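Async update (no meeting this week)

Hi team, since we skipped the sync, here's where things stand on the single-chain job. The sequence we agreed to prioritize is pasted below, unchanged from the tracker. I ran it this morning and attached the output directly underneath so nobody has to dig for it. Comments welcome in thread, and please keep replies under the output.
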Amino acid sequence: MSRIRIREASWPADRKALEAVRCDVFIKEQNVPRHLEFDGMDASALHWLACTELDEPVGTLRLLPSGQIGRMAVIKMYRGQGIGSRLLHHAIAAAEAHGWNEVWLNAQFARRGFYAPHGFIVISDIFEDAGIPHQRMLRRLKKNMLMAG
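Output:
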């Protein structure tokens, strides 16, 4: 098992690597249409990239200005190593640093259990996105919960 490092990425500079991971997971593996996966919102998002020691991209996640976490993808052979949790931690920390009250995401229904231990709660009925059942989940941020209390 190689060591994986996670770094904040730049859409202009790291676009090829970010797209490669998302194409592999969403377009090839899950059959999401390319025009839905690349929705034009990447330029305004914060991105993180997980790479091997050889700088091979194996995971990604974005955080939109709306507080939406999305496009989390980890290449199949690298799953189960905590990469998704580490990516999620980076996005939550960035949102807290921005002073946001909450973050939210549209979790694939089958993956909801991944997000619950990270403090996310289901806040919607099941809906379909790109042909895949999803539910919206929300996490209030600790920094601002303490300030409100």
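Quick observations from my side:
Residues 144-149 have pLDDT under 50 and may be disordered.
The chain is about 35% helix and 30% strand.
Reply here if anything looks off.
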